[in-house]
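Bug report

Summary: structure tokens for Ancillary SecYEG translocon subunit differ between web form and batch submission.
Environment: batch mode, default settings.
Steps: 1) Submit the sequence below via batch. 2) Compare with the web form result.

Sequence submitted:
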Amino acid sequence: MEVYTNENDQVDAIKRFFANNGVALVVGLVIGVGGVFGWNYWQSHKTNVLQESAQKFEAVNTQLRSGSEQSIVAAQKFAAETDDVYSAMMGLELAQIAVDKGDLANAQTALTNALAKAKTADMQDLINLRLARVQLAQGNADGAIASVANIKSKSWQATAQDVRGDALLHKGDKAGAKAAYAQGLESEGSQSIRGILTLKLNNVSNS
């Protein structure tokens, strides 16, 4: 099922970033706890927990590639029991598997749970974008528009407006869709997404 498109390179880059830097990044979020001893203890504890999460994530994700029901259950258990960025990343993986199977309800559940575990704005933007795509594929245009509205980063705006335009068009709002596609073209975006936006803008303008 073609629900996720265009942002795959950015998704892969985010996954690589967290795989390589997730521990240091999340530990950095707790700076300011106070006290040299308290900070050192907290830093050591968080680092150990995140290293363990990273190792478990890699192990479970490797199993998940088999596509077996057992591996999916293990991945769901990891995502539910882990409260850090690796849980969010696992949620993205589970959502992709569900989308590939045409199971949009489970995809939405996985993404909603992942959003609650996401620790950075960029990860939240990515999950909101994918959630909006799934909602739109379910015919929930209003839900998709609401999810897209939560996307803040400039680097995601072209793709976000692409989805928003599609949702507005689904609601029969051609003027709104046209404005969204035009806004997307004014935002940062790859050549591929700009080409898609241009094509959609031309189509809705001539319809």
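Above is the batch result. After comparison, the two runs are identical; trailing whitespace caused the diff. The CA atoms of residues 128 and 150 lie 7 Å apart. The chain has ten helices and no strands.
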